[in-house]
Amino acid sequence: MGVPTVNMKNLCSHLEEKTFGKVIHIHGGFLVLYRGRNYDRKKIPEIPLMLWKPHEPVYPRLIKTTIEGLSIEETKEMRKRGLAVPVLTKLAKNGYYASLVPMVRDAFLTDELVRIDCGGLPKSDYKKIGCKLKDLVPCILVTFAKEQIVVWRGKDYKPSNNGDDFLLPDREPFDNNDDDEADPPPKEDECLMRFYDGVLNVIGNNASSPRRPHHCSNSITRPTARA
């Protein structure tokens, strides 16, 4: 949960790359990662221990003094208007933010400025969220003042056609093959589907069945001898 859920496709690709597993189910912030039938811990390459701390990279400023294409006075006026527009949504701490990008894209169809309330979030978190919005929407960052994210769609804004390029639908692979002649699915996919159904059945049975109290008795009863 938290900032990485803004781009779920990137999150799942990193999990599969580092764990050598396969994400077989996604529902909100819940992921099912399958290790595979031929999993062997000894064959996984180990990452060596880093004995030194690298220098922190120097990132460019997200909020510039003047927005590109505007003067100083126009930038100040836009920041005042951005803090006065109605709030699109309020982000909770360590929440699920995968629907934030489509919300901003839909809002840009009618409004040129969008404000997101980040009250209670750490400053580094909503700065990272703003940086991801800048690349995924795309948009122009206006200000982070008063724990708010204000973004501008720009002068020549065009709606993006790739609405689901950062989301992963359930039970679908990452790569979409557009070829007419698709290869038949391998047998391993059937095993994954059976494993997925078994996991959901176990979860459903544990949730529906009430827990019975466990009575422990230290005394041992012996049968009485017949006369």
From TrEMBL:
State if Cell membrane is listed as a keyword: no
Which SMART domains does the entry link to? Answer: CRS1_YhbY
SUPFAM superfamilies in UniProt: YhbY-like
Signal peptide, first to last residue: none
User: Where does the record place Polar residues bias?
Assistant: 216-227
Q: Which GO BP terms apply?
A: Group II intron splicing; mRNA processing
The CRM domain, residue ranges: 1-46, 68-164
Q: What are the protein's GO molecular function terms?
A: RNA binding
Q: What's in the GO CC field? A: ribonucleoprotein complex
Q: Does the keyword Acetylation apply?
A: no
List the residue ranges of the region (Disordered).
162-189, 205-227
Q: Which Gene3D superfamilies match?
A: YhbY-like
Could you name the domain of life of the organism this protein comes from? Answer: Eukaryota
Q: Which UniProt keywords apply?
A: mRNA processing, mRNA splicing, Repeat, Ribonucleoprotein, RNA-binding, Transit peptide
The protein's name in its UniProt record: CRM domain-containing protein
Q: Which organism is it from?
A: Cuscuta campestris
| Taxonomic classification | Eukaryota, Viridiplantae, Streptophyta, Embryophyta, Tracheophyta
